[in-house]
Design a protein that fits this description.
Layout (H helix, E strand, L loop, with lengths): L23 H14 L7 H14 L4 E4 L2 H10 L8 E4 L5 H9 L3 E4 L11 H7 L4 E7 L8 H9 L5 E4 L7 E2 L2 E2 L6 E5 L12 E4 L3 H10 L4 E3 L2 E2 L10 H8 L5 H19 L5 E3 L13 E5 L1 H4 L3 H10 L28 H9 E4 L7 H18 L1
Helix pairs in contact: 1-8, 2-8, 3-4, 5-6, 9-13
Bound molecules: ligand T4K.
Ligand T4K binds next to helix 3 and helix 4.
Length: about 375
């Protein structure tokens, strides 16, 4: 336990994130309009408008809105019409939704290890996991940092293995000047309240041709083709008018939100980069970042304090960090005995060291500076 005499808590709780909210009166006006129309869901006016706006923003003409980011992963995989059964190679360093989507679709997840710099799936490890049963790779752009898509494409294209990107964290990110959702064979994203851009609950699927988009549109509506025919085994994954209306009021402010977060990221980078026990993961270099997350790794030996203790000490100061992604999804009982669950040493190292710091546009700069000072002081007092 460190001597806390030198530290006093921030007066209010600082959460890991906070949703961007539209003007409440504007939202009430939209809701009144929806009430008057009595059209609440099933590809309504607000849904169609938001889908168009998201497609434009993401430069992806074949975009389909859905009710959350988890269903978006299911649909992105289903859109590719893979052979039934078999394996999908993925990362254990992600939110449970990624691995569970593979399982719910009846494929076996096979874990590849992560890159020690970005935390994203390692292409070399993917190559080592490919078998005749491999149907696809589900990669995740963790924290919005792009995967090494060139290396992944090289590994996969040799054997015609499609790549699906779970891009839940990556709304607004650009790689080589292009929107990140254009990578791979299909991408999914999340518009959950905790995300950079939100529809309260929601998400989207990005495919690359009109035929695949049509299939996704059917699959999210029970597979219904028309009043006389149900074409596919689909489910209900539609976004309601209330959710779309919320998103429509926020889509124009996405870039401003990213710019505000960049200022917070700068404060963290300036304040933490010289601490030798701290590694900054989310540097935002080599691509246009969205600053969805700000993530560091703590080296316990050098810091004199472990990640979990630091997490607790910060909590005592009203700073609520998160350990995304601890525990690894390979530790879920259903997957923990898979041979590949024991073959991810880098991910197992990261799960012990990772800490995500609060970042959102409304976070006061003074609060971000307080977080930096607190981390510095706690490490100083611990070593
Ligand atoms: N793929 C990846 C890689 C993902 O990270 C996720 C979701 C998905 C797929 C699936 O997308 P969705 O199906 O969820 O659309 C949160 C989010 O619930 C989850 O969406 C997100 N990833 C994950 C990384 O984080 P929790 O359990 O950490 O959320 P929670 O409720 O503890 O909220 C975190 C903090 O956010 C709170 O302490 C305060 C703030 N907050 C939260 C909510 C819900 C608010 O201020 N207002 C709110 O309404 O999972």
């Amino acid at each position: 336990m460190i001597d806390r005499e030198y530290l006093s808590a921030w007066p209010q709780s600082i959460p890991i994130t906070q949703p961007t909210m539209p003007d409440v009166q504007d939202y009430i006006d939209s809701v009144k309009d929806i009430f008057a129309s009595k059209w609440l869901t099933n590809n309504g006016k607000y849904h169609r408008q938001l889908e168009t706006r998201v497609a434009e923003y993401c430069e992806c003409p074949h975009t389909s809105l859905v009710n959350n980011g988890t269903m978006a992963i299911l649909l992105a995989i289903a859109a590719l019409e893979l052979e039934d059964g078999g394996e999908i190679i993925t990362t254990p360093f992600t939110f449970a939704a990624s691995t569970h989507s593979i399982d719910w679709l009846g494929y076996d997840p096979v874990f590849a290890d992560i890159d020690p710099v970005t935390g994203n799936i390692c292409p070399k490890s993917v190559k080592d996991r490919i078998t005749p049963k491999t149907r696809a790779v589900l990669a995740v752009h963790v924290y919005g940092t792009p995967c090494d898509h060139e290396a992944l494409s090289e590994v996969c294209s040799e054997r015609n293995i499609p790549i699906i990107y779970d891009a839940a964290h990556a709304f607004g990110v650009k790689v080589g000047g292009e929107n990140i959702f254009r990578l791979g064979d299909a991408s999914s994203t999340s518009f959950h309240a905790t995300k950079l851009f939100s529809t309260v609950e929601g998400g989207a699927v990005f495919v690359h041709n009109a035929e695949a988009k049509e299939r996704v549109d059917k699959l999210k509506n029970f597979g219904i083709l028309n009043e006389n025919k149900i074409q596919y085994s689909g489910l209900n994954m539609k976004q309601s008018e209330m959710h779309s209306a919320f998103g429509l009021l926020l889509i124009d402010s996405v870039n401003a939100e990213i710019a505000k977060r960049a200022e917070i990221a700068k404060i963290y980078a300036e304040g933490l980069s010289d601490i030798d026990s701290v590694t900054i993961v989310t540097k935002g270099e080599g691509f246009e970042p969205n600053w969805a997350y700000y993530t560091i790794l703590i080296d316990e030996e050098k810091a004199g304090i472990g990640r979990d203790q630091l997490y607790d000490e910060l909590k005592n100061l009203n700073i609520f960090t998160r350990r995304y992604f601890y525990p690894l999804t390979s530790r879920v009982p259903k997957y923990e005995n898979l041979p590949s669950a024991a073959m991810v040493p880098v991910a197992q190292q990261w799960e012990k060291q990772v800490l995500c710091l609060p970042i959102y546009g409304a976070l006061e700069k003074a609060a971000a500076k307080f977080i930096v000072q607190s981390i510095r002081k706690i490490i100083e007092l611990s070593s």
